[in-house]
Structure formats: structure tokens, C-alpha cells
Write a structure and sequence with these properties.
The structure holds two protein chains of two kinds. By secondary structure, chain A is an all-alpha fold. Chain A contains eight helices and no strands. Classes of the chains: A mainly alpha, B mainly alpha.
């Protein structure tokens, strides 16, 4: 385990972080629309969003990766790199979780807030846009961070479909150097520092962003 | 235009069945062992012994913040003098990982018991055993049941990762059939359906058990 290998692993960690950041940002956009479907009063939208959420949450991420890895070239004639496959799967998979996060954040806003904004003459959409969502986003930030941590860990599965990130590099270095303990130990340490740091940030923000009194 | 041909793949149903069996074995063994380990760690975590509590919280933080895949690699590849078969390594890695999450759930449940409940149990003259049997355990079980159920589903889904160290479970056979026979999409659609039905049945069974055995009481 030379410093060069450690540097290589760190570079891999940056790749993982980048892909997850992009995936989570896109997942937030998609998840937002799915959560709106989820809370809509139209039965059909409700059902569709529920099926989407359950489909992604109740099947292994590894299988989802394989499906898109083999499926994109066959069905859509798209020759994409493993990195794109991993980004797409993280986006879709996280959007299912994020939809539930947004849904419960919106549900956590007290009914009186809706009534108050209606009585101020705001329409349903305007109440959502100016009163409910700003508060809901605030509540949603800590669980969004833990979703990011979850996906950062899950992105290690990208190595199985050939995406070169930290875990893939670790597996390669391990097979070159035969020093499993050092390589995997350093890899685990890098993941730990990233994920633990983010989790701490999440619980700090949870305390900071808590809306007191209004929704009790 | 690609035409799905499931017939080609269903020829290998004997492989899928044996893989399904191994997946079930992995999941059930992991659920069992991780629950025991999780309870031990949760109790250590809230213990007054500083050293024990620090160890438990270190355990929880480590295994919650390192990917399952890395844990699996460490258990399988790091040489500690014993060579685990892929299946045993899989059960160990899944158990270590899952126990950390379950310990946090159980700790939350234990913390939720109000001191008044223990006081009133004692003032009713219940022995320590009776107190655990009739007050604490049923109450904690009801609180943690749903969260532990989600964790059980996670175990089933996580067991697919063990395929990377050639443990011959469902995903492993899926990957092999896909590579050799080129009907990759069909295979993974079938696997998706199998895993979906597995995780939905796990949550259904757990919900039925909750309805029958863990009746709500006026305490909540």
C-alpha cells in the first residue's frame, strides 16, 4: 500500500461523490414531481406514483443496475458508459425515496397553515408554493442528507457493472498487491470519513432547522 | 426491435430455484443472528459501563457508514487464519451490517419506555421476569416491529450483493445465465419480479404477525 495507491483511492472517492451528487440532485427534481403525484387527489396519479416508489424501494439496487446496464442498449439503442448507467439508477432509485421524504415533509406541515393561507385568499397552488413548500424543504434537508449518505454507500455497487470508482479501484489494487487488509481498510476508512461526516452534518442541521412551536 | 423471450430463460428454472433457496437461507440466518447481535449491542449502548457503551457506539457508527460491499470484501478477503466459504462470509457480513441498524432501532424502542411504566409494574408487585415478560418486551416489540420489518426487507435485498464473492444465490445465477446465454434482460426482469415478491411477502408476513400477536393496548 504505497501513497500512490492511497491517492488513487481518494481520486476514486471524488468520482463516487460526483456521481452521487449529480444523481441526488436529479433525484430531488424527479422525486419532487413524484411526491406531488403522491399527494394529489387524482386516484390514477396516486396509484402510478405508489407503484413507482414500491418498484424501486422493494428491489435490489444491484438488479436495477443490471437491468439498465443491459436494457439501455437493447431497448433504447443507447451505448452508454457504466458511469451514466450508475447515475441514471441512482437518480431513479433515490427519487423514489426522496418522493417519500417530500411527502412526509409536506404532511408534517400542520393543517392550520393550509387553512390560514386559504383564508388569506391564496389558491391551492399558491399556498403550496409560498407557504407549505418553503417549510417542507426545510424539514426535508436532514433526511435528504441521509439519503445522500445511503446512495454514496450504494454507489459502491457500481463497481460490479464496471464503473471505475473507489470500490472498483480498491478491488483492482487488491488484486495487484495482494494486501487485502491494507487496501480494504483504507477504503473503509475513506467511506467512513465521508459518510460519518455527512451524517454529523445532517444531525447538526436537524437541530438548527427545526421549526419550533408552529407545527406542534 | 428487441423481442423479449422468457421461454429461453425459464429453461434455467432449476438454477433460479436453487438460487432462491440460498437467498432465503442467507436472509433467514441473517435475520436471526443480526437480531441477537443487535439486541446485545443495543443493551451495551445504553449500559452505564462507559467502555461497553463506547464500543457499542463505535460498532454502530462504523457499520452504518461503510458500504455493505466493502464489509463483504473485508470478511471474505482479509486473511484472519480462517477461510470462510462465500456463503458463511455472506452471512457474517450481512449480520455485522444489519445488526448495527437493528441496534439503533431497538435502542430507540428501549428509550421509549417511560420510567412510570417500570415504576407501576414494580408497585403492582411484578417480579423482574414478569415485568420484562408482560410490560417491557411486548411494549418495545410493538414500537420496533415496523422498523425491524423494513430492516428485514433490506436484508433480503442486501443479500443480492453477496453474489460478488460467488455465493451461489439468486443474483449470482442471474449474472451467470446473463453472461453465458445472452438473454440478460429477461433474466433480470425475472429476478426483479422474484425479489419484489420476496420483499412484499416479508412485509406482509410481518404485518400479519403484528396484527395477531402484538395487539395494541391502551398504553399507546
Amino acid at each position: 500500500m504505497t501513497p500512490m495507491y492511497v491517492l488513487l483511492l481518494l481520486k476514486g472517492a471524488v468520482v463516487s461523490l460526483k456521481v452521487c451528487t449529480l444523481g441526488i440532485i436529479l433525484g430531488c427534481v424527479l422525486g419532487f414531481f413524484i411526491s406531488l403525484m403522491r399527494i394529489s387527489k387524482m386516484k390514477i396519479l396516486n396509484m402510478l406514483s405508489l407503484i413507482y416508489i414500491e418498484l424501486f424501494r422493494d428491489s435490489p439496487l444491484l438488479i436495477q443496475l443490471f437491468l439498465f446496464y443491459y436494457g439501455l442498449p437493447i431497448f433504447f439503442n443507447l451505448q452508454v458508459s457504466a458511469q451514466v448507467v450508475v447515475t441514471i439508477v441512482i437518480t431513479l432509485n433515490s427519487s423514489a425515496y426522496i418522493a417519500e421524504i417530500f411527502k412526509s415533509a409536506i404532511g408534517g406541515i400542520m393543517k392550520g397553515q393550509w387553512e390560514a393561507s386559504y383564508s388569506l385568499g391564496l389558491s391551492h397552488l399558491k399556498s403550496l408554493r409560498y407557504v407549505i413548500l418553503p417549510q417542507a424543504f426545510r424539514i426535508a434537508i436532514p433526511p435528504l442528507i441521509s439519503e445522500f449518505v445511503g446512495k454514496l454507500k450504494a454507489s459502491s455497487l457500481g463497481s460490479v457493472v464496471g464503473f471505475v470508482e473507489i470500490t472498483r479501484l480498491a478491488a483492482m489494487i487488491r488484486s495487484i498487491t495482494y494486501s487485502a487488509f491494507d487496501v480494504l481498510g483504507v477504503t473503509a476508512a475513506i467511506y467512513f470519513v465521508m459518510c460519518y461526516g455527512l451524517s454529523r452534518l445532517g444531525s447538526y442541521l436537524e437541530k438548527r432547522l427545526e421549526i419550533k412551536d408552529v407545527n406542534k | 426491435m428487441y423481442i423479449l423471450q422468457f421461454g429461453q430463460v425459464l429453461k434455467y428454472n432449476y438454477m433460479l430455484l436453487s438460487g432462491l433457496w440460498v437467498t432465503l437461507e442467507l436472509s433467514i440466518l441473517t435475520m436471526f443472528f443480526s437480531l441477537i447481535l443487535g439486541i446485545i449491542i443495543a443493551i451495551s449502548r445504553i449500559s452505564k459501563n462507559k467502555l461497553l457503551s463506547a464500543f457499542a457506539s463505535g460498532y454502530i457508527e462504523f457499520f452504518r457508514n461503510v458500504p455493505l460491499l466493502i464489509i463483504i470484501y473485508i470478511v471474505f478477503y482479509v486473511d484472519i487464519g480462517i477461510n470462510f466459504t462465500p456463503f458463511v462470509a455472506g452471512v457474517i457480513a450481512l449480520t455485522l451490517n444489519s445488526a448495527a441498524f437493528e441496534a439503533e432501532i431497538i435502542r430507540g424502542g428501549l428509550k421509549a419506555i417511560a420510567k412510570e411504566q417500570i415504576d407501576s409494574a414494580q408497585s403492582l408487585g411484578l417480579s423482574k421476569f414478569q415485568m420484562y415478560r408482560f410490560i417491557i418486551i411486548p411494549y418495545v416489540m410493538r414500537i420496533v416491529w415496523t422498523a425491524l420489518g423494513n430492516q428485514a426487507v433490506d436484508i433480503v435485498l442486501g443479500s443480492s450483493v453477496v453474489s460478488v464473492i460467488t455465493c451461489m444465490e439468486l443474483t449470482y445465477f442471474g449474472m451467470n445465465i446473463a453472461v453465458n446465454k445472452a438473454r440478460a434482460i429477461e433474466i433480470f426482469i425475472i429476478l426483479l419480479i422474484i425479489y419484489l415478491s420476496l420483499s412484499l411477502s416479508v412485509s406482509l408476513i410481518l404485518r400479519i404477525i403484528k396484527r395477531i400477536f402484538l395487539k395494541p393496548s391502551e398504553l399507546e
